[in-house]
TrEMBL record:
It comes from Medicago truncatula (Barrel medic). InterPro entries: LOR, LOR_sf, Tubby-like_C. Belongs to the LOR family. The lineage of its organism: Eukaryota, Viridiplantae, Streptophyta, Embryophyta, Tracheophyta. PANTHER family: PROTEIN LURP-ONE-RELATED 1-RELATED (PTHR31087:SF160), PTHR31087. SUPFAM superfamilies: Tubby C-terminal domain-like. This is LURP-one-like protein. Gene3D superfamilies: LURP1-related. It comes from the Eukaryota.
Length: 165
């Protein structure tokens, strides 16, 4: 990701770390982007659409219909698969795995996520990148609420917000 302005380091202020690209640089911007998530309520499939402020489709989430293994595919505006999310069967913390494209091959695993605790009133998810096999500490924490229409993504167990919805 290229930034139009790179501040020069000074002896008094440490440089902030550059953002980490998880999916691909084409989905990163050096500025905030406003997106809206729209859920279609009267459909058989569990589908979401993500639009920009002008109503242009940026992403779609296509849900599985009548399948044994629950999964969703995130596609771009042209319908190209970006990520496949697959729910693990029979897990206590409602674990999901994310793979590149439409793959579910272990070599294409990007991250796994699980609920932080069994009992929750608001959503709290722990995200572990594929290389974090010990899962002692999460790489990201997601906290949010559908009711409040908000969500924040934190770097690990810190209070540093890396994304907000």
């Amino acid at each position: 990701m290229a930034y139009p302005y790179q501040p020069q380091p000074s002896s008094s202020a440490p440089m902030p770390p550059l953002p980490t690209t998880i999916i691909g640089p084409q989905y990163c911007t050096p500025y905030p982007v406003e997106l809206a998530v729209v859920k279609k309520v009267m459909t058989i499939a569990d589908n979401l659409t993500v639009t920009d402020v002008n109503g242009n489709i940026v992403f779609k989430v296509k849900g599985s219909v009548f399948t044994i293994r629950d999964h969703r595919v995130l596609v771009d505006a042209a319908g190209n698969p970006i990520i496949t999310l697959r729910r693990k069967i029979l897990t206590m913390h409602d674990r999901w795995e994310a793979y590149r494209g439409q793959s579910t091959n272990a070599k294409d695993l990007i991250f796994t996520l699980k609920r932080s605790s069994l009992m929750q009133f608001k959503t709290k998810l722990d995200v572990f990148l594929a290389g974090n096999t010990k899962e002692d500490v999460c790489d990201f924490k997601v906290k949010g609420s559908w009711f409040e229409r908000s969500c924040s993504v934190y770097a690990g167990e810190s209070n540093n917000i890396v994304a907000q919805v």
